[in-house]
Amino acid sequence: MIAETRAKLLTAGRKAFGSVGYAEASMDDFTATAGLTRGALYHHFGDKKGLLQAVVSEIDAEMAARLCSISSRAPSRWQGFVDENVGYVQMALEPEIQRIMFRDGPAVLGDPSGWPSANGCISTVAQSLRDLREEGTIVDIDPEAGARLINAASSIAAQWIANSDDPEATSKRAVETFRTFLEGLLVGKPDRG
């Protein structure tokens, strides 16, 4: 019963945040859509901001799973690393992710580098950099520093896309430049003619 109530509220919150945004979504809408009381919302999430944090965590976990799937299909560790990082930036074109993760999330919850999931992302990127360095694919770089810089670049690029007047055009510019940025790590940099 508890898990079902929580799931109903998460679904209602996600739908409202994704369609009308955090500012326009009301607690009464969440509870009415879920067929529950405000008390249930307060009990499970504390308030509207707590519900947003839970929705962000849920979407973040889904994004992470999608990115792992993207990298696992790549023909090489390096290509998987690039595809995964670029995939994150490109997710900013998806309306629900765009609004919740890259517009309202930072506006309400603060800098994404301080979110609970940020350390996990940095740790994963750092491990990838260690592995790529050990196999001789990339230059000798401090994995944690590199991971933090890559994480910051991808996060800011995604926010730029999400808040752009022309997200498609901005995404193309951001992805092309981000790829060039990542290629700078390679031991044998590709000839860009």
From TrEMBL:
Keyword DNA-binding recorded: yes
Record key words, sorted: DNA-binding
PROSITE patterns: HTH_TETR_2
SUPFAM superfamilies per the UniProt record, alphabetical: Homeodomain-like
GO molecular function: DNA-binding transcription factor activity; transcription cis-regulatory region binding
Every HTH tetR-type domain range: 3-63
DNA-binding feature ranges: 26-45
PANTHER family noted in UniProt: HTH-TYPE TRANSCRIPTIONAL REGULATOR RUTR, HTH-TYPE TRANSCRIPTIONAL REGULATOR UIDR
Protein name from the UniProt record: TetR family transcriptional regulator
Source organism per UniProt: Rhizobium lusitanum
